Amino acid sequence: MLIAGNWKMNLDMSTARQLAGSIRSSLEDPGPVEVVLCAPFVYLDAVYGLVHGSPISVGAQNMHAEDAGAYTGEISASMLRSVGCSHVILGHSERRQYFGETDKSVRDKVVQAVRHGLVPVVCVGELLDERDKGEAEAVVARQVRGALEGVAYPGRGKLVIAYEPVWAIGTGRTASPEQAQAMHAHIRTELSGLFSEGDAARIDILYGGSMKPANADDLLSQPDINGGLIGGASLEAAPFLSIVRAAMRADRP
Ligand code: PEP
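A: This is the predicted complex of the input protein with phosphoenolpyruvate.
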């Protein structure tokens, strides 16, 4: 199980430090549940400094696919590693929607992240219109293949998928546990076509989209839901920790 907070473009340095500090000080031993804080680039170093030595890891929300060079304003995988990041969110729907990310650009970033030992958290998910037209499974399958086709299996725990139906992100509207489970099982089938069945069975597939303390137990108890990518509810320590505790209750081998 993995619970990752996606802080998006929120907080200032002082509130980011407070949030990381209070999550660290209030988190009891999460056991096998991995906890990752995905902070804005400018806070990564500070957040790493605050959680280093605890069970909490740090992730970024995006990166560039090249190693270095004339890419003004961009951040590379090695830069992320150098400030303590272990994870990076790639292909979030907001990046696809507002910044022109495509399956191809996501794949290039996945390859680069893996090459540098970062765990890519690859986001996939359909629009409401696509779900209404009965296209959700085809869209998500295309995104999974587009991001991972030809990528060698990086090893256990080194690749994470996040299913985030776009209509559920930040809307307060959550996929039902049954809807989410059905899509997660579909994603796992796609993964077993790309990697081996055994490897696919062990890839964590997170659910994201208005997960909160009130619905976390039901979502996380589904057999193919291996954690959550949490937006709004990760911006305060109490709801985020309550979701981490739901993951601890639901954790299974
Ligand atoms: C997200 O954007 O990754 C997300 C899941 O947001 P929220 O929890 O606010 O829906």
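The chain has eleven helices and eight strands. The longest helix spans residues 177-194.
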